[in-house]
Design a protein that fits this description.
GMP Synthetase, Chain A, domain 3; 3 strands; flat; alpha+beta
Length: 121
């Protein structure tokens, strides 16, 4: 169970990282829409898992995610400039693709196909 402090830091990081991705999208990520969906912070606040959704053509999604991972150090420095007054330690960042939207679409597709088969009977 996450503490109140972990939740507050996670929300702060999510907001600030979202702003960074929005403002730097044209320069760093060829204008792709990148959304920070979830941030999970370790109990000692030194590490954060950042889940992102990338809205780009499917071919570009993997290359954009690789680009995000390559620029993790730069993104962390930008984050440090924004939250230095609120946090003493800027957490190490690890980025992951949030595939919950794809998972949801797959479930809906499966439900829809099973409903169609039942109606045919």
């Amino acid at each position: 169970m996450e503490s109140t402090r972990q939740n507050k830091v996670a929300r702060l990081l999510q907001k600030e990282l979202g702003d960074i991705f929005q403002k730097e999208s044209m320069n760093m990520f060829r204008g792709a829409l990148i959304s920070v969906t979830v941030v999970r912070v370790a109990p000692d606040l030194s590490f954060a898992k950042v889940y992102v959704s990338i809205f780009a053509p499917s071919k570009d999604e993997k290359t954009l995610f690789e680009s995000i991972q390559d620029k993790t150090k730069t993104i962390r420095q930008m984050l440090a400039q924004k939250v230095a007054k609120q946090l003493r330690i800027i957490p190490e960042l690890a980025f992951y693709i949030d595939d919950s939207i794809e998972y949801q679409e797959n479930i809906e597709r499966l439900l829809h196909s099973s409903n169609s088969k039942e109606q045919e009977k």
